[in-house]
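Lecture 7 notes: from sequence to structure.

We start with a single chain of 359 residues. Read the sequence below before looking at the structure.
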Amino acid sequence: MIGGSYVAGAEITNLNLIRDLHQQGYGVLVVVNGWNDGDFIKRLSQYEIPYRSIKLGFIYITKPLWTLDSLIHYPKAIFQLQKILKKFNPDFIFHASYRSFLMSYPLIRGYKNIYREHNNPTINNKNYKLYHFLEKRITYFICPSETVKQTLLNFSIPLTKIQVIPSPIDPEFTRFNFRIDDSRREVTNVGIIGQIHSEKGFDFLFNELVKVKNDFKLFIYGNDTNDYAKSLKENLPKEILDKVKWMGYVKNRLEIYQHLDIVIFPSLSESFGRIIIEAGAFGIPTIASDISCFKEIIKHGETGLMFKLTDTSELTSYLEQLLSNDLKRKKMGENARTYVLNNFTSQKCTEKFEVLLKY
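Now the structure, written as tokens:
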């Protein structure tokens, strides 16, 4: 059962898995969130993957209208799901969210259930209770990194139930080199991609960029309509005001990377780092913070550079290095592309998932 209300990182990962299994002959039926913008369903239809749309919601304490809507549709959703299970009779049920598992549990407790933990859950009493409940009832847990695996172990989930399967790049990223020839550019293009909030490192980023002496253009891709983003715009240092361009949310990620030479990923916390492998597939080196999950997918000095969060001035130094040395930047990008294509293709990640289906 997949969310699919809209398509972002987790949904891209799940779509890759669904497509691969379907194309390899597995019987796949996707249960899609009935509240959606149509994009997820459109992509399923492109691959001729069968699906059913059900309004199986959740109980939200802080969102009473959502909860009311969920409760109104819950009886019908359970009836529809019961019919699907009886007709399809799955060997495994894959869950992209604990919410779908909890809401459908009365019907699925007799099946083998696989749960993908896309995020790195906070360790607190609430989550201890949640994962204690899940551990007794989930057959396998999938997570994108050793970092998340350690968190699941901290929740007392047995090692034998956990499988690390990275989030793969889309096949479109592997087929061609979409990079536009940058030899005629007058200035190097630097990009930041993703959600715009404090956990992404913006609170120190601009203060470091002010120190950069080499010329550059900074393109920020992400929804910039929230209050935090508006505050960043209003308080942008005047020294880099003309260098920063806010691009808003861009759905087609292939278009984003065509125009970039360097990617910066200064997050304080992540569960994986899809932006890093996507940039690498385009031959673009990433300058990222030294959080643990990034250390799993960047070879420092070879495929990218990692600065210490305890010494953010390193970000300035590393950016200066790549801005002033085209050969180093391009060589690092080539290394990143090779590394990504050898380790993070959809095929390789699906093969790891298939191992679980054989037990």
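The chain has a mean pLDDT of 93. Keep this in mind for problem set 3.
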